[in-house]
Amino acid sequence: MHLSFLSKVQNVWASRPAMAATPISASVLVFPSMHKINPLSARWSSYPKLTSPAAAPALVQPETDVNGMPQFLSKLKFSQDGLVAVIVQHIDTGEVLMQAFADRAALNETLQTRLATFYSRSRKGRWCKGETSGAFIHVHKVFVDCDRDSIIYLSDPIGPSCHTGARTCWFSETSLSVDGVQEAGDHTHHADHAPQTTLLSLEQTIAKRREAMQQPSEGKPSWTARLLGNPELACKKVREEAGELCQTLEKSEGRERAASEMADLLYHAMVLLNLQGVSMEEVLRELRRREGVSGVVEKASRQAKPQ
Amino acid sequence: MHLSFLSKVQNVWASRPAMAATPISASVLVFPSMHKINPLSARWSSYPKLTSPAAAPALVQPETDVNGMPQFLSKLKFSQDGLVAVIVQHIDTGEVLMQAFADRAALNETLQTRLATFYSRSRKGRWCKGETSGAFIHVHKVFVDCDRDSIIYLSDPIGPSCHTGARTCWFSETSLSVDGVQEAGDHTHHADHAPQTTLLSLEQTIAKRREAMQQPSEGKPSWTARLLGNPELACKKVREEAGELCQTLEKSEGRERAASEMADLLYHAMVLLNLQGVSMEEVLRELRRREGVSGVVEKASRQAKPQ
């Protein structure tokens, strides 16, 4: 039962509304495909609330009816309250989406339904994330740490993971400077103070340069802004950097140069993605889709490329 | 004082021993730079234990001496035990390295020293990670979640984060199939059952194909194996895929095609990196190094490229 339920939920997610339009530069006339959206505003904005009246799968078996479940649960180190910590991580982007706690029943249910389920300490009971909001979290894999008291749900969320509507629960950054402790950030501007790993941080920097181009500026444009304003140059650079990456191998330029040229290629290619409104999350999702599929079979499954 | 301490620690890390050599294929003769190491074996293997006799910074101020610190700490929701959960995440790869708990004193110390510090529930006291092993964790940024009871230390580790010597604390995967609950993985083969997000998972797949090439096989080689065995083909494909990514913009082929071509380019470029023993972590580290540096200034700072 829960499988058809899941595919229903996934269909709703797949058909989510297109991302909102933002103004563009004039070069759209030259490159008609240059997209009008900012991929970051899509990635970071609140997802639409799903209105599905879905209830949690009703057919969860008690742990004693599942082969090996009581043994697995008994090997965990639950706290005095009967809980272990659970970290929910995005399978594609690596973002930490939320952290909560689970009891035996919640882990049993999560393993069976593959929907992130917890024990709510405030409500003192079972909590299947998304049951009321529609923002379920699809759990791909479950991991237990070395001390057996901390769990990772490696997951694909189908909506915002935070009850505020933000993409993740962390949007408040604390720093210490000579002036003392400062805290910044709120859920309405989630991206500004979220824990961004390097790739996401680079993507956001490119998106911010794009946004800044909407404002008049007298300063010399950044290299990113020049690329964004000149798609022909961006394409030229992507081809050039690909060649330079190849040369690191062909001319034995060394590991350091190879890492540097790959960084160049990645950055320029990400500018090209921004111009088309494509996020790295979408690229990673596509790479995951192909995982375990033979390259030859995968290639054959695609539509013919435009000539 | 702690700043010079940190730079000392970082120097030790920078001068860590080179990665171990593994056998290579014959094509090394054609491409002399093709590296003899598997980047994954480096990324996933245990780091060398640092032997620095470093002690924790001694000059941590009490919270009441730091402007804004008592106010910040008082806004957190500590448990009855006086703790909040802390998740340590790798700033470049996004890996969740470890999860522990912190009290007021640990957070105060972490913000001041920028070394990940916790409250050890087993030892019932202060725990600066790395103080005995040398495997300190450098904290770049600190984030508080929406409920103010869960913290992220966005970090750069200088050694293994797990007390077992594994890269992270999660190397045990639990799954449920028709046969019941299965658990797999141990710290000596960390990568096999670690929570791998899409990019790291792809990197590992490529590395596994490379390893498999050392064994005789009668089956048809995978596309990845063909690329790994033919660096000329791999270079040709990287140039070709870069061109196809550019065409998605130039010929308005649409967002889906752009994501797909970027996935192609990324995959082929990562094969090229594997051939040179370069990990994505190194590429991401290089991208982070450039962050906040003007592209023009950064370019000028590099050595002249070999012609």
TrEMBL record, chains A, B:
Transmembrane segments: none
Phosphoribosyl-AMP cyclohydrolase domain mapped to chain residues: 98-171
Gene3D superfamilies according to UniProt: MazG-like, Phosphoribosyl-AMP cyclohydrolase
InterPro entries: His_synth_HisIE, HisE, PRib-ATP_PPHydrolase-like, PRib_AMP_CycHydrolase_dom, PRib_AMP_CycHydrolase_sf
Record pathway: Amino-acid biosynthesis; L-histidine biosynthesis; L-histidine from 5-phospho-alpha-D-ribose 1-diphosphate: step 2/9; Amino-acid biosynthesis; L-histidine biosynthesis; L-histidine from 5-phospho-alpha-D-ribose 1-diphosphate: step 3/9
UniProt key word ATP-binding: yes
Pfam families linked to this entry: PRA-CH, PRA-PH
Keywords: Amino-acid biosynthesis, ATP-binding, Histidine biosynthesis, Hydrolase, Multifunctional enzyme, Nucleotide-binding
Stored CDD domains: NTP-PPase_HisIE_like
Catalytic reaction(s) noted: 1-(5-phospho-beta-D-ribosyl)-ATP + H2O = 1-(5-phospho-beta-D-ribosyl)-5'-AMP + diphosphate + H(+); 1-(5-phospho-beta-D-ribosyl)-5'-AMP + H2O = 1-(5-phospho-beta-D-ribosyl)-5-[(5-phospho-beta-D-ribosylamino)methylideneamino]imidazole-4-carboxamide
Similarity comment: family membership: In the C-terminal section; belongs to the PRA-PH family. In the N-terminal section; belongs to the PRA-CH family.
Protein name: Bifunctional phosphoribosyl-AMP cyclohydrolase/phosphoribosyl-ATP pyrophosphatase
